[in-house]
Amino acid sequence: AVERTLSIIKPDATKRNLTGKIIAKFEEAGLRVVASKRVQLTAAQAGEFYGEHKERPFFGELVAFMISEPVVLQVLEGENAIAKNREVMGATDPAQAAEGTIRKEFALSKGENSAHGSDSPEAAAREIAFFFSGLELVG
Ligand code: CMP
């Protein structure tokens, strides 16, 4: 089925001017950018977005990292977009990520891992609505 997923190009990647290279990998895999904006997140926004990780030991570090530089928020659309996006990103830990994936090529560590993608249809719906209004999605 055609799905939409929320993608974030993270601060380690925007800082190193890798935005275009990362978007190219999604496009080459057949995903289409149907919404896009570059923003500076606040701690409140990043904390709410990652609310499910609030009790994790890395939560403070995660929020601090996500507000350290601008991020690029995008909605990607395509056949099986949620799984395809995660396949193109590769494993969370760059040491475990497959050849050719975004995290293998660009990520610095488990935390500074260049990209985020929704992990389920429910998460995608919540995460897209968190950052975008319906009017901003142009398929
Ligand atoms: P993401 O897909 O954005 O969702 C949660 C994030 O937490 C994850 O990517 C990682 O960047 C981050 N994360 C997961 N494990 C660790 C860890 N051990 N240390 C720091 N950050 C982590």
From TrEMBL:
<dbReference type="Pfam" id="PF00334">
    <property type="entry name" value="NDK"/>
</dbReference>
<dbReference type="GO" id="GO:0004550">
    <property type="term" value="F:nucleoside diphosphate kinase activity"/>
</dbReference>
<comment type="function">
    <text>Major role in the synthesis of nucleoside triphosphates other than ATP. The ATP gamma phosphate is transferred to the NDP beta phosphate via a ping-pong mechanism, using a phosphorylated active-site intermediate.</text>
</comment>
<keyword id="KW-0067">ATP-binding</keyword>
<keyword id="KW-0963">Cytoplasm</keyword>
<keyword id="KW-0808">Transferase</keyword>
<keyword id="KW-0418">Kinase</keyword>
<feature type="binding site">
    <location>
        <position position="103"/>
    </location>
    <ligand>
        <name>ATP</name>
    </ligand>
</feature>
<dbReference type="InterPro" id="IPR001564">
    <property type="entry name" value="Nucleoside_diP_kinase"/>
</dbReference>
<comment type="similarity">
    <text>Belongs to the NDK family.</text>
</comment>
<keyword id="KW-0597">Phosphoprotein</keyword>
<protein>
    <recommendedName>
        <fullName>Nucleoside diphosphate kinase</fullName>
        <ecNumber>2.7.4.6</ecNumber>
    </recommendedName>
</protein>
<feature type="binding site">
    <location>
        <position position="10"/>
    </location>
    <ligand>
        <name>ATP</name>
    </ligand>
</feature>
<feature type="domain" description="Nucleoside diphosphate kinase-like">
    <location>
        <begin position="2"/>
        <end position="139"/>
    </location>
</feature>
<feature type="binding site">
    <location>
        <position position="113"/>
    </location>
    <ligand>
        <name>ATP</name>
    </ligand>
</feature>
<dbReference type="InterPro" id="IPR036850">
    <property type="entry name" value="NDK-like_dom_sf"/>
</dbReference>
<keyword id="KW-0546">Nucleotide metabolism</keyword>
<keyword id="KW-0460">Magnesium</keyword>
<dbReference type="InterPro" id="IPR034907">
    <property type="entry name" value="NDK-like_dom"/>
</dbReference>
<dbReference type="InterPro" id="IPR023005">
    <property type="entry name" value="Nucleoside_diP_kinase_AS"/>
</dbReference>
<keyword id="KW-0547">Nucleotide-binding</keyword>
<keyword id="KW-0479">Metal-binding</keyword>
<feature type="active site" description="Pros-phosphohistidine intermediate">
    <location>
        <position position="116"/>
    </location>
</feature>
<feature type="binding site">
    <location>
        <position position="92"/>
    </location>
    <ligand>
        <name>ATP</name>
    </ligand>
</feature>
<comment type="subunit">
    <text>Homotetramer.</text>
</comment>
<feature type="binding site">
    <location>
        <position position="86"/>
    </location>
    <ligand>
        <name>ATP</name>
    </ligand>
</feature>
<feature type="binding site">
    <location>
        <position position="58"/>
    </location>
    <ligand>
        <name>ATP</name>
    </ligand>
</feature>
